Amino acid sequence: MVPHLTTALKGPLLDLERRFLSEQPAIERWFRTQWLEHTIPFYTSVDLRNSGFKLAPVDTNLFPGGFNNLNPDFWPLCVQAAQSAIEKICPEARGVLVIPENHTRNQYYLQNVAQLTQILRQAGLKVRIGSLLPEITQPTAMQLPNGGSLTLEPIQRKGNRLGMADGFDPCVVLLNNDLSAGVPDILKNLEQNVMPPLEAGWTTRRKSKHFAAYDRVADEFAKLLEIDPWLINPYFAMCGEVDFHARTGEECLAAQVDTVLRQIRVKYAEYGVKEDPFVIVKADAGTYGMGIMTVKDPSEVRDLNRKQRNKMAVVKEGMQVSDVLIQEGVYTFEDINGAVAEPVIYMVDHFVVGGFYRVHTSRGVDENLNAPGMSFSPLAFESCCAFPNPDCAPDDTPNRFYAYGVVGRLAMLAAAVELAEMQQ
Amino acid sequence: MVPHLTTALKGPLLDLERRFLSEQPAIERWFRTQWLEHTIPFYTSVDLRNSGFKLAPVDTNLFPGGFNNLNPDFWPLCVQAAQSAIEKICPEARGVLVIPENHTRNQYYLQNVAQLTQILRQAGLKVRIGSLLPEITQPTAMQLPNGGSLTLEPIQRKGNRLGMADGFDPCVVLLNNDLSAGVPDILKNLEQNVMPPLEAGWTTRRKSKHFAAYDRVADEFAKLLEIDPWLINPYFAMCGEVDFHARTGEECLAAQVDTVLRQIRVKYAEYGVKEDPFVIVKADAGTYGMGIMTVKDPSEVRDLNRKQRNKMAVVKEGMQVSDVLIQEGVYTFEDINGAVAEPVIYMVDHFVVGGFYRVHTSRGVDENLNAPGMSFSPLAFESCCAFPNPDCAPDDTPNRFYAYGVVGRLAMLAAAVELAEMQQ
């Protein structure tokens, strides 16, 4: 099922979907040539927003959680794609050490790790889960809500190799930890292949660099399809040196908010969009939806009260906000039984392997749906996004999902460009 | 569902399946290194026989029909694998010209072509079906039993390129025609990529070369797993210059039948197999089960009556038999509701994408199940063969299918070796 589009204005999206369908061979061929030119991240998830007049990525995660939310029917696709990735990155690999986040109390997250482990095992690898938590001093079984269990084990470093006390010596270290708290010494200068590379962690990664790369990818793709790149690309700007506590950088922030709002207004006028433009203000580094504001007027960022400033100043694991991203807000007019729905696309290697909707009853169409304390219901896609059907309407299930898969892959490609630039 | 194994002696197979399971990481790693060293055929299907004491390939088809018999749940795997193959072989491809067999009256075959076309379209290619039949002088829609239709179109050759009258100029020619009638001039010396290569057709291909390559592949794999290669490999021998009409070559045939039967007897004694050894005598080139005999004693090939000689002397499209393969017969003790079942494994690129059972109520456990006039019921595998589950018994559904997928891939690897040798 595809959610209901509640906007009156969905002509631009229908045109876009129609274009994706009719140009599918050209699109897939273009992607194939891109895969040859870039090193693709091992896995990626992309948050999309669909306003009916625009379908755009708003966040690209290189350490995706949520594999447990995918449709079990498409797990074979994950296994096959993982085999393809391993083949390219480390064909000689026997063992993989997975390093998860330290959220041992988040059982949904642990189910994600269990699912990821299962995918890698079925792809033919020996998989062990190494915890960065100091309290994990021996193999520790964690019970999962689905009745399964997951064993976290302490990591040992010998010289420049990570392994385990019983001699487990993996060829590859797979990070499912976004390194928001910095890169731990134990992970530095390893001789093993680390996927994704340490630079992909939030210690060094910046959303503004990602969306700058996405600008170029989206422009090239839009040229290929002869479409307005704005239809798939949100405007953005950034401010460095913002300190919400000390109230420095507020003027820069207000000015950039104003700039982006003006840019959006021009496009809204061009396409006859009647909604109010808005921007999302969030940390340029970091994740988990902490420190995120919806802003419709520059004045709103000038006069933050103490509570708002505290909320913005702290992100995951206490990282200080200093660089701030101001991103065009894209309305979510997708709606499942009255609840707002945001699609998340999953990729392993360069293959789209599924996705799900974050469905949230208590949030607005202009709010971030991946926010703190947020308890969304995941609704697995019923299609694997690889199956357009030209005999159906452009917004029918397989075709809407194909469009998601195209935009998701564009964001993943931008991440590949971004990582290559960081490693230069 | 996995068919019931009706043999009392299934210990060797259980051991084999157990070994495949416990060594899965080593097996998959070995396959990955093989994929790097060999050019893998675009697609392959492999007929297996499972006697409980042995699981072996008996035929490897490089122009597989029967894609319509696969479980629709796993079509996404076919699409993803096709994308992977195209990416490696011809990333720049936009259009594909599929050249099917000339069986326009075989509606099951036409459904296979339709399914194959659908897979390629969903992988993002422009696909047209070019017929070699002289009577196809304009686009001709064929009705399919499932309600769909398929358009066959005349091919045009311009210089060294194949295309169609309206300017369709494909990058790739995909053969789904095994060239039993010889290589038509229109296919010779094309500048386009032809997949599989023309050498893979029965004009030049020989089963004895395939099984000679399989001998080496199976030996190397058996060494890796420390198993007896006979458990996965049928003995074979060949005779050249056999003319059943002129009754020349009968002595060679009888001698080779005797040799292979003796070899089998030694192994049957070693494993305590109580059944009668038998061999299958078939054309070394050619397909579709024409000219196939089950033989339990050398005398049987010495005194063929006229009817038997006529049956053996003619294969598909009138090719004359001259080289003959004598292959160890492998009993089929897999049984679905009393009917004999033979598994067929499908691969696209090097990925196992599914399979089905040929189920036949009126044939014996020692007969070829892909014989003329044979109307088998296809029973799609419920598993994609990529999903072993170490928590289940070695002969439980996912694990039995994993074993099929391993042996199927060994045969496909042998085909890759065989093709490389032919092209040297």
From TrEMBL, chains A, B:
Entries under SUPFAM superfamilies matching the protein: Glutathione synthetase ATP-binding domain-like
Signal peptide limits: none
Ligase as UniProt keyword: yes
Gene Ontology terms for molecular function: ligase activity
InterPro entries per UniProt: GshA, GshA_N
UniProt KW keywords: Ligase
Entry-linked Pfam families: GshA (PF08886)
Protein name (database record): Glutamate-cysteine ligase
Organism of provenance: mine drainage metagenome
